[in-house]
UniProtKB/TrEMBL annotation:
GO terms for molecular function: dioxygenase activity; lyase activity. Pfam families: Glyoxalase_6 (PF18029). Residues 4-111, 132-230 form the Glyoxalase-like domain. It comes from the Bacteria. Keywords: Dioxygenase, Lyase, Oxidoreductase. Transmembrane segments: none annotated. Coiled coil: none annotated. It comes from Nocardioides panaciterrulae. PANTHER family: CONSERVED PROTEIN, HYPOTHETICAL FUSION PROTEIN. This is Catechol 2,3-dioxygenase-like lactoylglutathione lyase family enzyme. InterPro entries: Glyas_Bleomycin-R_OHBP_Dase, Glyoxalase_6.
Amino acid sequence: MIALTFSSPDPERLAGFWGGLLGQDVTIDRGAPSLAAPPEVGFGLRFVVGAGEKWGANQMHPDLKPTSVHEQASAVQRALESGARHLDVGQGPDAEHVVLADPDGNELCILEPGGSFLAGCPFFSSLAGDGVAEVGYFWRDALAWNLVWDQDGETAVQAPTGGPKITWGGEPVAPKLGRNRLHLDLTPSAPATIDAEVERLSALGATRVDAGCADGVGMADPGGNEFCVVG
């Protein structure tokens, strides 16, 4: 199993924001506010206490893809009314996608409808990451997902059953100056233990690090991005 975890100074507030934006109820998973993974999404969201000042743009951010211009405008309005704000990352006035920051300042994009790359993906269409191809190959093997894009250093993986894609943009990669606010949690498939999963991931190129995992083992992928192996 896989979950996307947000470290936040106010997890309950941030969970409420994302629940409202995605149209999901907030539940409690392993003691943390969470959004369950619907069948078409592929991973749930968890919100845990943490995160100091942002040191720069997050190494990964959610992309939301509406099916119409009306749905895009509605999603932007819903986000702004729930505490988001517009964010200028150099996209320019003619950009058709909308860049926002959630109440904690985490970047997210509400994309324009259309296009083929994310065709068939749900509203939470992708998790866009900053990393070279080696990182994409690692996550392909770590998750046993399909490599659905591999071109000019850019990679993307997707679960065999579909759902959102996780993408990496290739070079250049922005310098990483602190612990990521967003990270992935991996739960070993039965009957594997946490120790066995850590050993497997280490063989794929991960390293053990202090990732602030309250209930698991901290690791980092080949790009230095933290993640947690949890029970």
